[in-house]
Amino acid sequence: MKQLDLQKSIETFAVFDLFMAALAFGGLILALLGFLLGGYWLYLAYAMILSELILIYGIFIAPKRLKTTIYREAIRPNADVWVKVVLLSDFHLHGHKSRAWMDKISSKVSAIKPDLLLIGGDIVVHNAKDAAKADPLKNIASTYGSYFVLGNHDYQDDPQAITAQLSEFGLHNLTNCNLSINIQGKELRLSGLDDAFYGRPSLPLNRASKDTPHVTLAHQPDIILNFQEDDTDLVFCGHSHGGQIRFPVIGSIRVPSAFGRKADGGRKIIKGIPTIISRGLGEVGCRARLFTPPEIVIIELGI
Q1: Which residue in 164, 103, 94 sits closest to 136, CA to CA?
Q2: Domain co-membership, 162 together with 199
Q3: Cβ(22)–Cβ(296) under 8 Å?
Q4: For residues 223 and 2, is the Cβ–Cβ distance under 8 A?
Q5: What is the pTM of this model?
Q6: Helix axis angle, 41-56 relative to 14-37, nearest 10°?
Q7: Which of 18, 142, 167, 212 to pair with 248, CA 20 to 30 A apart?
Q8: By the 8 A CB rule, do 188 and 83 touch?
Q9: Which residues have a Cβ under 8 Å from the Cβ of 275 and sit 6 or more positions away?
Q10: What is the distance between the terminal CA atoms of the chain, rounded to a whole angstrom?
Q11: Bridge-partner residues for 234, per DSSP?
């Protein structure tokens, strides 16, 4: 199994919080200095004020602006059965994520009335106990079931405990499993793979037939490093957070993938395979997002 060189680390927001507080304080001092000195120093003052506003937006507003993204994907050109799939990924539950946030997600997804709910891993940041905060997911009814795989952060503490917790909420563990779902007389083959970094993905995929529509749920897009083009028709994944911090023109500063910005989020073609990458619902490393809001992904899937 090909793996990235990802060092296991316990993420903490304390350093980020202290850094942001220092940055905010320094910005205010410079802004005041600019206004006191006047002249060209006023440009510095205005720049500092703008920076402070961006900082406030990125930390306190952007991470709460829940977005819904819709894709229409026909696996077969003559598809006559359409399945409403909802993909959620990268909750990164921790001390700063309130129950109200999960209630909001659950309420919005319930209103969508999904046929199939897929959870793409990274339920927590590093503490398995935080998986209990995913409790509102049990309120989401899906016609053909709700399934999950784990992500790299779920392996930093107790993945078995997280799996057990999600199972208590009525979600089905799809890790290294294959199943067939009969939808209005059509068969849909669904596969799930373990985390590409810390897990043991079961490869190659067990595809029943090339004539049967086949979709795969994984955490990282990097799992496709090990795929052949005809292994699956469509991949659902997360992990990259859309870069989490993006800037106009420049785009993502960092994307944690061997594919780089090609795998930052959205619908991509990777190694010839259509891939839908969730930008996630939480944050890690820093408690901020910029120009990549948390998202609920809806896929209208034609089979």
Answers
A1: 103
A2: yes
A3: no
A4: no
A5: 0.90
A6: 150
A7: 18
A8: yes
A9: 221, 224, 234, 235, 236, 237, 263, 267, 268, 269
A10: 30
A11: 215
Domain that holds residue 154: 67-302
Cβ–Cβ < 8 Å for 290, 245: yes
Partner residues linked to 124 by β-bridges: 93
Q: Based on the domain organization, do 283 and 220 belong to the same domain?
A: yes
236-250 pLDDT per residue, tens: 999 999 999 998 888
Interstrand relation of 177-183 and 146-148 (parallel, antiparallel or unpaired) = unpaired
Number of H helices, E strands in the chain: 4, 14
Asked, for residue 1, whether it belongs to a domain, the answer is: no
Domain boundary among 62, 85, 100: 62
218-237 per-position pLDDT tens digit: 999 999 999 999 999 999 99
